[in-house]
Every structure is written in structure tokens, then in C-alpha cells.
Amino acid sequence: MTKRQKLSYEQHIAIGKELSEMRNKLITRQVQICKAYGSSKKPTKLADKACDMLDRLRCGMDDQLCRDYPDKFDTHVYYPGKNRQ
Length: 85
What we know:
66% of the residues lie in helices and 0% in strands. The protein is mainly alpha-helical. The N and C termini lie far apart (39 Å).
């Protein structure tokens, strides 16, 4: 069985930035959909679910970063502040 190679710290940084940007765009669209159709309609519920799944992915990647690079771990990789994006 071949051992898989973990992501480099730099790859984590790039993925974290992309996921953060994706989340910001998705939240903007989710609000737009909710305003147009209401919170109980299927499109809004699906947009909510997509936001939740993206947040779960970021959380999982943050956990993996901590396991892979405990000495370099920084929560701002997957959860940058407004000034860090």
C-alpha cells in the first residue's frame, strides 16, 4: 500500500485562502437567495446547506493542519480575519 503524501504547509495556506473566498461569495449569494425567496424555500435551504458543508470542510482542514504541522499551526490559515484575506 502506497503512503499518501500530506499537503505542504504552503498548500494549506493556498487552500485556506480559496475556501475563505468561496465562503464569502457563497454567503453573499445565500443572503441574496433568502431575500428573494424567503428562508423556508428550497433554494435558501440548499444555500444554507452549502454554506454549512463548506464550513465543515474548513473545520476539517483546520484540524488536519494542526495534526500535520503542530509546530506551525495557525487558525488564521483557514479562518483569516478581515485584515488577513
